[in-house]
Amino acid sequence: MTPPPARRRRGADGSATPARTLPRRGAVRRAQAITTYGVGSLIAVEQESFIVSGIDDAAEQWPRDEAPVIHEPRLARVLGVSRFRLPPASGDDSRDGIRVRRFPLWHHCPECHALDHVRKFNSPPGRNECAECSESLVPSRFVVACEDGHIADFPYWKWLHRGRRGDGEAGFCGGRMSLRSSGRTSSLRSVVISCSCGVPEVSMEGSFRRGALKDLKIRCEGKSPWLKDAPDLLCSQPPRTLQRGSSSVWQPVLRSALSIPPWSDTRVHALDKHWDKLRTCSSLAEIEIHLKYIFDGTASPVSPEEVMELLKAMEAEDPTGDDAPGLDQEQRYRALRDLEYERLCAGNPMDSGHHTEQFVCEPPTGDGKPLIGLGLGTPMLVKKLREVRALKAFTRVIDPETSSEGHEAELSLHRTDWLPAMEVHGEGVFLRLDEERIDTWAELPGVAERVERIRHRHQRVLAQRASDPTRVPISPATPRMALLHTFAHVMINEWSLDSGYPAASLRERIYSGDEMAGVLIYTATSDSAGSLGGLVAQGETDRLAQAVRSAVRRAEWCSADPLCIETETSGAGGTNLAACHACVMLPETSCEHNNGLLDRALLVGTPEDPSIGFFAHLLPQ
Are 396 and 146 in contact (CB under 8 A)? Predict the structure, then answer.
């Protein structure tokens, strides 16, 4: 990562002198530039703090020559872009890297306790230290952010000088502030701010209260420091005080898709820049003429017949014209899951395509008798898969799972035709539950009552986070979805003991709907280590039957029982019932729903009503 480039200066003769070489400030993995340290996030490097710049000015902030293109047409069409790009590498062989800007700008000196804007300390060139004490400056521990994604320095002046004016607004006295810790406790009460003007000193206690800044008439200034030349916007959201290193400061809004036929064949990538012209073709003869022009007379890697099939698939997935259904982005994104589910059910055998195929899915070869009576359909072994995860936006203060598009902060000041993304290659196992049995089970009064409690609380959280009260998203919590989600969690925990992958290296993909009842558990590594065969081997019928029985038996008891199984609410926003970190919760990177919408009782039942457990028949009587 590097700070923004220095401006070119004119020499004595008027000629432009080269800008100084940009210093490198730390390094992150490419995957972290999407999931952890993406655009708009704060990153600590040694004793300094920076914010990652946006992507709109690629020449200065996101160098394109170090950002290889990633192909995934389905996801690109849904997100309204033409392509994706890998983040620039930050290794020793990289010429550049992702640009960052210093943030927060308020610092304090641990020696003389001065608290001020970083420029007021008169630091020597290239160093971030107090000119008087020669001590390294410490960036502010506190920032303010709002639910619309704006972020700014904590208003120390206004917090300390509260009530200095008759109208209740904070005033500015021109004195020098200081920040010190009393050392008595580690609480905010020990963080004390004072000023040379003589105003009574105050502590930071109470600054994190939801309405603390609003009560002082401190409004959000609409600042977007990660975007170059971004104007301050009028914002109606109340600002909230956050710790600089808190996860609430930045949470990514990720969208992902599996590469499935026909787009999983890497040969079609050669046509990515030419689909606009090819979509105008109505016959094989016209396609053949275009292919000769595209490849300048050389042999095309894709035949005209294959191009015609691709065009038909493209039209089915993304219809055009006046009669095309008007689907919003979220509906089109959910439609991708329908296509993935169909392909996972149908399979794509190893010998069905070329060596360039990135999706291989087939049933196990063993006898299926061990699976009889478990409530499962025929599993599918996904021996080869590729997933593209794109960073669409990010949120602050609120969880992206409960936010709406109105609260999502943009990655650029001006709209771009690309988004940062990463690709992962690996393997997985696709499990389907018996849909008829699920329908019968979901009608049980005890099941409906528990899931309704989850759905009601989740809907309330969605309503609180909605930017438009008239367009509140509908909670996906249904008996089928909660069952599949909890089942995926217990299977990941079980397989992490046998597959050779830790739980943090496995991910879930839930397929829940009127005609869908499946989960894909797959590896989530960005290199070849994700396809070592350890997970696929768990999908063989003998091992799978044993793993399901073992996972259900583990879920029967939690070390936090009886409190866990008897709890009335748990999890963020109360969107869980019987679920905690001692039984079914997973690392956040493994779960699609931020460890919400979980209930272990739906798998094994409760002591009062064992019948509500879908897999209760597998438990010893």
Answer: yes
